[in-house]
Amino acid sequence: MLESYIPIFVMLAGGVAFGVVMVKLNEWFGPRRPSAEKLSTYESGMDPVRSARERFSIKYYMVAVLFILFDIEVVFLYPWAVSFKQLGVAGFVEMVIFIGILLIGYFYVWRKGALEWD
Hints:
Methane Monooxygenase Hydroxylase, Chain G, domain 1, flat, single chain, 5 helices, mainly alpha
């Protein structure tokens, strides 16, 4: 039974070996001409104003996670809309319940102030 996995192991070993060889070839034969210009930070052609290690507010991440959450849940509306006629009344009632739960979650997040930027 283990013989059937041999091609997979060969491909994995070949991929890892190829990656290591390419990195080493770049180290050995690549140009090394560091300068202050090359080592400086580049931000849209402007000199950086602050450190790159600046901390972001947790609200930024909360809004991002909530956006992804609600965006993914809205994706469930597309297959429902395509097969709306075949689902009948039962499908409509289920989707109304789904949207109701989604709205309850949205109002809860809004009431808690997770969407505020101040």
